[in-house]
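Question:
Write out your own:
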Amino acid sequence: MLCEICFELQVDYIKNATGFNAGGATSEMVECLKQNSQGIKVVASGGIHSREFAQELIDAGAYRLGTSSNLHNTK
């Protein structure tokens, strides 16, 4: 239903969470939003602390990532 409302309002992005509460981004949530977003871009936020997880979210359909972590220096 959220994706339908966002589509009707012609938003540019759907974000999974603010990143401040527990239970940040998951690849399952990103996939769900992507499948139901009717073409709206998905932003994944919260709990992204490694390049590997960031890539997993991108592979799941995230267009952007919201992170305060420095992913450049992680292995």
